[in-house]
């Protein structure tokens, strides 16, 4: 039986993911079909559907895995509002995005919802709420507008950067973000 713990299942999942990312080098995500992924991975459609519902499910789950890799870079670090809004935080984050820009271009291309769904509580509790309170903002509804602004702004900066091929260095993009956030500190 081919289960998630099964080595063959895991190998097929890796082939599906690698084939998908390879196709992203040539095609926009909305042009990639399950059939194309299966042909590239040399698997049957039923094997694909044992892993994912469709191409967008694959993209979403890969995004979660990639975001977990980003978060792993900061394990063992004390995250506070000063660290979070610093080059020390943004440069490794941006470097990771730059190294995986084809994938993130696809993710940001489909972005239509709240940019950060995972890790929401940490960003809210460590950054947004303390900074808002420091500036006399006590309404959580008002804080949420700042949060949405913060997320959307950074997401669109990332989108522009990857759409342009990550021409600027992570350090340059970090400095642009820091300049935008300087009023927020």
From TrEMBL:
Q: Name one Pfam family in it.
A: TetR_C_8
> Which keywords annotate this record?
DNA-binding
Superkingdom of this protein's organism: Bacteria
Q: Which residues form the HTH tetR-type domain?
A: 10-70
* DNA-binding segment(s): 33-52
Q: What is this protein called?
A: TetR/AcrR family transcriptional regulator C-terminal domain-containing protein
Q: Identify the species of origin.
A: Clostridium cibarium
Q: What is the lineage of its organism?
A: Bacteria, Bacillati, Bacillota, Clostridia, Eubacteriales
